[in-house]
Amino acid sequence: MNIETIIESLVALFINRPFIEMLIKVLIFPGLMFPLLFVVFAVWFERKLMAKIHLRIGPLHVGPGPLGGIFQLIADALKLLQKEIIVPYNAHKILYNILPLAMPMISLAAMAFIPVAPFPSVGPVDYLVVFYTPYSILVVLALFAIHPFLVIGVGWASGSKYTTMGALRAAYQLLAYEVPVMLSAACVVMVTGSFDLIKIVESQANIWYILLLPIAFLVFFVSMMAELGRRPFDIPHAEQEIVYGWATEFTGVHYVCVMFAEYVNLCVASCLVTLLFLGGWLGPVLPPAAWFLIKFGIVVVFFLMGRGVYPRLRIDQLLNAGWRILIPLALIQIFIILVLAKFAPWILPVTFLGG
Amino acid sequence: MSIMRVRWGPQHPVSGQWAFWLDVDGDIVVNMEPDIGYTHRGIEKVAENRTYIQNVPVVERTSVFDAGNIVFGYVQAVEELMGIEIPERAKYIRTIVGEMSRIVSHLYGLCLLAIAVGFETMLMWFINDRELFLDLFEMLTGARITYSFFIPGGVLHDLPQGFYDEAMRRLDYFERRLKDYWKMFFLNRTFITRTRGVGVLKREDAIRLGVVGPNLRASGVEADVRKDEPYAAYDQIDFIIPTEKEGDAYARGGVRFHELEQSVSIIRQALQKIPDGKIRVKVPITPTPPKGEAYSRVETARGEIGYYIISDGSNRPYRVKISAPSFRNLLAMPFLSRNVPMADIPTIYLSLDLIPLDVDR
Fold first, then answer.
1. A304-340 b/e (C-beta count within 10 Å ≥ 16 → b)
2. Which of B25, B342, B344, B345 to mutate to test the interface with A (most CBs of A within 10 A)?
3. Is residue A118 part of a domain?
4. For residue A126, is it within any domain?
5. 3-state per-residue secondary structure call for A302-335
6. Of A173, A186, A182, A169, the residue nearest A245 (C-alpha)
């Protein structure tokens, strides 16, 4: 075996269409690069949006012209990476170091199941999706559901009173939003008859589910906001009450990981709302990926807006809202779907329950 | 059930320069003890070693958020000791500065209430409008926060040229904004949910605990030194004392908000009625009042402040005793913080508008 055959076989291994396609999917569009750029842009945009709402100017300096402040996050991250990692005396050393690093990994893993646009591909489906499975919505929601357990673990492992309180609040909050998320996602699954995100989008060709299932959209959006811990529901952080909740003790690289995971979660949640209720990449004239990004951006703005217009709720008020309002609303939506399926099945995209 | 003892401050984001010991059972606070003294500067002792004029900036440091009204009481006590009557114009200028100081302080207090429930927009908008009056202070006194404008015998400067027009323009703008604020913040459903029924201080408890100022008025007691014992020009000005019945955090915020509207009206009337004349009577640079004692009280933004000054006939006071409003309101804090959720502690604390500077002195 000479060197030429080795090079040839290496070329054959790497320079081929499936491999390059996979590389693009994993590293660039739905994969790593997209959430990374999203985090940089979302943090900057959030600061600018909040400044506009607050009647301030907002960040101006680190960046060119009207994009002032856009590199601030990168500068901050580089600074934080150089910081000393302080492990509290009472902390569980191993868990304290591992769990925050696991957070962005699990958040990014959810991105692998999100289809973003049709794309002639050599893979199992002709779509831009890293890993295709017919049960993608289940997988994404399951990966989402792991996050609160990491939070509880982190809060306990930090060995501080404020982190413990933050973790307990995260556990309570989990009870409030997890059931409505599942029920409202179930509405979409019932109407489509599939767990596949691609099929869910394709079935919205005639009517988006935001119009067909408005109550489910409302419930899903609100409980996703609670899942992300955005402003009316940022109870586990609650700076004014418990310093920074479960993330109080983190410094340096741990803090970077925790914040990164939060914004990647925002990215995944916005993708989910776009795919489930806003018809994903469907739309006239513009290319599908552009439609996806436009809808995605609008959803992100609404997620970010909560911080400007609402104060924070108390944990008992959130639990009340979750169990007394969101769950009954989701059940009403399911009932409406069943009534429609019985008496007006032509409205629904697929026939089920025996027609 | 085990009870966890949490130290809430002084390194906590909103605790201010003091600490609370909280006994927490799950998420419920069963007991609370304030731990004060972090900002004790011994102002009362310092005041014994300085002349009466030198003491003006010293007592101002009791609470710089409300610099006008804090000094008001001190200079009135010194004037009472020396037996001097200040000119009418000085009284009106003092009233204007006192009310502007009240507005600035109440805006700050409402900001703190917004912080407590995590309402950033309300915080920023109120802080923004504080600038309107800080600029007026700069125009009138040359300083924005600590202006030491009142001296025994009158005030330092006359109203500058163009002050009337500028002040009226800003008051008009501010009044328009206040209407929006009521709709946007005080009628916000989430804000109401977070503050209604939180930290309810009943009328009899408020009187028993000796609470003063807007906190007392929010519990339904119509007590205000400006009406009860009118000083400066308040007896010639028409205003009402806003009160609320509920005594919760929302009512305390509401009383502050309505006092903003009243203060605007008071400044307008004072600017229109202000007579011509001198702005101060001649007082020596180191006044030496005769032997005796004087007590003076005024209504600051946080409530009634009392100054008790004893003179031994020298050019320094023998004793200056300050009865500060936040210290008196502090007693309500442990009373209200029993068996409430942890999340309501900042709301109770900041709705009482307590500031550690004022408590410790």
1. bbbbbebbbbbbebbbebbeeebbebbeebbeebeeb
2. B342
3. yes
4. yes
5. HHHHHHHHCCCCCHHHHHHHHHHHHHHHHHHHHH
6. A169
* Interface size, chain A vs chain B, as Cβ–Cβ contacts under 8 Å: 80
Report chain A residues whose CB lies below 8 A from the CB of B342. 165, 241-242
Nearest-by-Cβ selection for A316 from B122, B188, B341: B341
Which residues, 6+ apart, have CB-to-CB distance to B85 below 8 Å? B79, B281
> What confidence tens digit (pLDDT) does each residue in A341-353 have?
878 777 777 655 4
Q: Starting at the edge strand that comes first in sequence, how are the strands of the sheet with B19-25 ordered?
A: B4-8, B19-25, B28-35, B340-341
Cα–Cα distance for residue pair A8/A11, rounded to 1 Å:
5
The answer to whether B127 faces chain A, any CB pair under 8 Å, is no
Q: Residue with structure tokens 């990981």?
A: A257
**CB distance from A319 to chain B under 8 Å?**
no
Number of domains observed in the structure of chain A: 1
- Spatial contact of A322 and A175, defined as CB atoms under 8 Å apart: yes
Kind and range of the H or E run holding A78: helix A72-81
DSSP string across B23-44: EEETTEEEEEEEE--TT---HH
Domain B40-328+343-360: CATH architecture, name and number where available:
Orthogonal Bundle (1.10)
Q: What is the least distance, in Å, from the CA of A342 to any CA of chain B?
A: 39
- Across A43-72, b (16+ Cβ under 10 Å) vs e yields bbbbbbbbbebbeeeebeebbeeeebbbbb
DSSP state at residue A167: H
Classify residue B116 as exposed, middle or buried by CB count within 10 Å of its CB (0-12, 13-18, 19+). buried
Range of the domain at A160: 87-347
CA angle B80, B82, B87 (to 5 degrees): 70
Interface of A with B in 41-100 (CB under 8 A): 50, 53-56
- Evaluate whether residue A309 is within a structural domain: yes
HSE-CB of A102 using CA atoms within 13 angstroms: 16
Cβ–Cβ below 8 Å for A239 and B24: no
Q: How far is A114 from chain B (nearest CA, A)?
A: 33
Is A58 part of any domain? no
3-class DSSP state of B4: strand
The type of residue at B245 is: K
> In this prediction, does ipTM exceed 0.85?
no
Q: What is the pLDDT along chain A (355 residues), one digit of tens a residue?
A: 688 888 888 888 777 777 787 888 888 877 788 888 889 889 999 989 989 888 888 888 888 877 888 888 888 889 988 888 888 888 888 888 888 888 889 988 888 888 888 877 777 777 888 888 888 899 999 998 888 888 888 888 888 888 888 888 888 888 888 889 999 998 888 888 888 888 888 888 888 888 888 999 999 999 999 888 888 888 888 777 778 888 888 888 888 988 889 899 999 999 999 998 988 888 888 888 888 889 999 999 999 988 888 888 888 888 888 889 999 999 999 898 888 887 877 777 765 544 4
Element at B22 (helix H, strand E) = strand B19-25
